[in-house]
Design goal:
Pfam families: KdpD. GO terms for molecular function: phosphorelay sensor kinase activity. InterPro entries: Histidine_kinase_KdpD, P-loop_NTPase, Rossmann-like_a/b/a_fold, Sig_transdc_His_kinase_KdpD_N. Residues 24-233 form the Signal transduction histidine kinase osmosensitive K+ channel sensor N-terminal domain. With 384 residues, the chain is an alpha/beta fold. It has helices at residues 4-11, 17-23, 40-53, 69-75, 98-104, 127-136, 154-161, 171-176, 187-195, 202-210, 215-240, 264-278, 296-311, 324-334, 349-355, 358-365, and strands at 28-33, 58-62, 79-80, 84-88, 91-95, 108-111, 140-146, 179-182, 253-258, 281-288, 315-320, 339-343, 370-374. Helix 4 (69-75) links the parallel strand 2 (58-62) and strand 3 (79-80). The longest helix has 26 residues, at 215-240.
Length: 384
């Protein structure tokens, strides 16, 4: 992730704009919120003013105030690019003039409502496509979008709110962003803003409160926004982390260690319940000893456990190793596991005293991982 000062330093580069554009792709900072009115555009304009004071060449490529006076006032003092006029259906409408922005070559351009669909007859169908063209020339972009406009969340948002969102952006836009900022307010605050007329015109307030702006809808959308950005941060950290670097999990990750013992299905169900409660990722691990041949029934059982794991939305991992403890510890580190679920040992007390227990070894190997030992009865293997 690129921080504010770093972006400012990059924007303040003394290199000519044409040299800079050949050297790098523009940086994209997204301001994302749970619903209209949370303050995404206002926050974007605030940051733009600070950068302008630092000497950055900032322009507004497209601003949608929706009649909100506070937002319009915040734009005062920033250069605004004229809109490109397009005649459609006998009516003249305005769109962002991407060509004019490219010709102007600012260091930073502000683009509101990233998911907007352009007027028919425009060179590109979607505003995010215009932004991609701008980024490719080396110009940095600040943009705004609401969580319900993400493509992968479309069905879920429709289920929560009863509203099918027509304007959407592909998830890769969020994934490829240099920085993502969640502009967050409580549902109660957002409803107050709506009632005070700070979001929509008076005639739309009551209808909005009864539909999209119901508190339960806002609570769910807020959680979606926070969770989506948390996932985005964690995935970015995971991709950029080195084996030696300490990785900080945003979410819990549950690893269920299975074997050919029939209690493994029970362990998987317990792990799936834990993952659901924690809203975490689920993994199942089978350590296959290279010198041990699995019987047909045992192979079928492991395959059944794999299918269980996939049905629960988890990821099944199989590694070959003669050392079970080492294999579990290595997998836990590789996948940044926070919770490990094991079945109760079936070794005799003498074997544990002589060779040590798996749990004792894992406690030594995994300092920051919680171990769950599930008591199970020893059963004879039965064919499925």
């Amino acid at each position: 992730m690129i921080h504010q000062n770093e972006i400012a330093n990059q924007l303040n580069s003394t290199e000519p704009n044409d040299t800079l554009s050949r050297r790098r792709r523009g940086k994209h900072k997204m301001f994302i919120g749970m619903a209209p009115g949370v303050g995404k555009t206002y926050r974007m304009l605030e940051e733009a003013h600070r950068l302008k004071e630092e000497g950055i060449d900032v322009v507004i490529g497209l601003l949608e105030t929706h009649g909100r006076e506070e937002t319009a006032d915040k734009a005062v003092g920033l250069e605004m690019m004229p809109k490109k006029l397009i005649v459609h259906g006998g009516v003249t409408l305005g769109e962002m003039d991407t060509d004019a922005i490219l010709e102007r070559q600012p260091q930073l351009v502000l683009v509101d409502e990233l998911a907007h669909t352009n007027i028919p007859g425009s060179l590109r169908e979607k505003r995010y496509q215009d932004v991609e063209v701008i980024l490719e020339t080396g110009i940095d972009v600040y943009s705004t979008v609401n969580i319900q406009h993400l493509e992968s969340l479309n069905d879920l948002v429709a289920k929560i709110t009863g509203v099918v969102v027509r304007e959407r952006i592909p998830d890769r836009i969020l994934d490829e962003a240099t920085e993502v900022v969640v502009v967050d307010v409580t549902p109660e605050t957002l409803q107050e803003r709506l009632i005070e007329g700070k979001i929509y015109a008076p005639e739309k307030i009551e209808q909005s409160l009864q539909n999209f702006f119901q508190k339960r809808h806002l609570v769910a959308l807020r959680e979606l926004a926070l969770r989506e950005v948390a996932d985005n941060i964690e995935e970015s950290a995971e991709k950029n982390s080195t084996p030696a670097a300490q990785f900080c999990n945003v979410h819990e990750r549950v690893l269920v260690c299975i074997s050919t013992y029939p209690n493994s299905a029970q362990l998987l169900r317990r792990g799936a319940r834990l993952a659901t409660v924690m809203r975490s990722r689920l993994y199942a691990l089978f350590v296959d000893h290279p010198e041990r041949f699995l019987t047909r029934d045992e192979s079928l059982y492991i395959e059944t456990c794999k299918n269980f794991c996939l049905e629960f939305g988890g990821e099944f991992i199989c590694v070959k190793s003669a050392n079970v403890a080492d294999a579990i510890a290595a997998t836990a580190r590789q996948y940044h596991i926070t919770q490990v679920i094991l079945g109760q040992s079936h070794k005799s007390r003498w074997e544990i005293l002589w060779r040590g227990s798996l749990v004792q070894k894992l406690v030594r190997y995994l300092k920051d991982v919680d171990l769950h030992i599930i008591a199970t009865e020893k059963k004879e293997f039965k064919r499925f």
